[in-house]
C-alpha cells in the first residue's frame, strides 16, 4: 500500500511525505523505501521520498 502511494505521488511529479515519531521502529522501513528526514518537528520528524531526478522535497 505504501509503495502504491509513493508511485502515485511520483506519477504526479510530487514527493511522498510522512510524519514519524523519532523512536518509531517503522522508520527503518521508511528509510528502506527511500524516505529521508527533511524537517525536525520535535517529537516527530517529517520524512519525504522524492521522485527520481526530482527536487520536490
Descriptive report:
This protein has one domain (2-49). Helix content is 28%, strand content 32%. It is built from 2 helices and 3 strands, in the order αβαββ. It has a 3-stranded antiparallel β-sheet. Strand 2 and strand 3 (44-49) form a beta hairpin. It is globular and about 30 Å long. The model has no long low-confidence stretch (mean pLDDT 92).
Produce a short descriptive summary.
With 57 residues, the protein is an alpha+beta fold. The chain is built from 2 helices and 3 strands, in the order αβαββ. It has one domain.
Rg on CA atoms, Å: 11 Å
**How would the global form be characterised?**
globular
Main sheet overview: 3 strands, antiparallel
Q: How many domains, in number, for the residues?
A: 1
Number of helices: 2
Could you name the ranges where pLDDT drops below 50 across 5 or more consecutive residues? none
Strand content: 25-35%
The end-to-end distance, rounded to whole angstroms, is 21 Å
Please tell me the overall pLDDT: 92
Q: Trace the largest sheet across and list its strands.
A: 1-3-2
The helix-and-strand class reads alpha+beta
The helix-strand sequence is: HEHEE
Q: Approximately how much helix is present in the residues?
A: 25-40%
Number of strands: 3
Write the layout of secondary structure elements.
Blueprint (H helix, E strand, L loop, with lengths): L1 H10 L4 E6 L5 H6 L3 E6 L2 E6 L8
Antiparallel strand pairs: 1-3, 2-3
Tags for this model:
alpha+beta; 57 residues; three-stranded antiparallel β-sheet; 32% strand
Amino acid at each position: 500500500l505504501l509503495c502504491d502511494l509513493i508511485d502515485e505521488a511520483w506519477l504526479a511529479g510530487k514527493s511522498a511525505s510522512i510524519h514519524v515519531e523519532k523512536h518509531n521502529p517503522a522508520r527503518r522501513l521508511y528509510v528502506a523505501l527511500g524516505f529521508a528526514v527533511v524537517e525536525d518537528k520535535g517529537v516527530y520528524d517529517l520524512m519525504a521520498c522524492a521522485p527520481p531526478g526530482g527536487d520536490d522535497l
